[in-house]
Amino acid sequence: MSKIFMVGVTGGVGSRLAPKLIEAGHAVSGLYRQPEQEAGLRQAGITPVFGDLMELSTDDLTAATQGHDIIVFSAGAAGSGLERTTAIDYETPVKLIAAARANGISRLYLVSAFMDAGRDRPRRDGFEHYMNMKRQADNAVVASGLDWVIVRPGVLVSEAGEGRVHLDRAIPYGQVARGNVAGVLAKLIETPTLKQEILELTDGDTPIDQAVAALHR
Ligand SMILES: NC(=O)c1ccc[n+]([C@@H]2O[C@H](COP(=O)([O-])OP(=O)(O)OC[C@H]3O[C@@H](n4cnc5c(N)ncnc54)[C@H](OP(=O)(O)O)[C@@H]3O)[C@@H](O)[C@H]2O)c1
Questions:
Q1: Nearest residue by C-alpha to atom 11 in ligand 1
Q2: Domain residue limits at 202
Q3: pTM for the whole thing?
């Protein structure tokens, strides 16, 4: 049993991941920013930790993550502006790396973005900034010295998914159900031998367990 701290627990991916982790026997804490979310988190068996990423400092996140074994980041500014994108998609992972180091937490799972995203569309400043922040966050994680895994999903769709994916170090771009992203993260967390990995993910034909096992080669 691990103690897992989730940033993004109320989101599309996070809210599907937390129950899987609890079912697997882990203790899950999760950050929330809207008071009305607290009761639902408690009902789901998640320890709620109140805070807004636009305000939380490295020290705050160090205090919040103390006593945990694993940090999962699946938060995102979701197109709410350049400043928020910088703070949430880039600066928060950097703060979490510092918090992990301060607390001796070695394992960090980061939901990033598929670097091919939007390459077939005209450039939009906000989207380019988002991708740049995701890329910079990945770079910080890779340089962190932690036991990290970065998952880069294709375009997310709000479905449970059928538990079949395409997961590897470099794959063609496509879409992926948020439930499949959660399923892959849950399996990766059960597989600590997989670390220092950047993985691309879309829906596909391979059952999640097999897709994760196949990464050992
Ligand atoms: N959309 C795509 O097609 C796509 C593609 C590739 C990768 N991604 C990435 O995939 C990840 C997961 O996506 P998703 O669909 O699960 O995202 P989502 O549903 O938008 O959830 C975002 C999460 O971040 C939290 N959050 C946002 N601002 C916050 C703040 N200021 N303080 C505290 N928490 C805050 C949200 O909390 P609230 O519930 O309070 O809003 C929510 O828990 C994100 O990192 C996203 O960038 C997305």
A1: 74
A2: 3-213
A3: 0.98
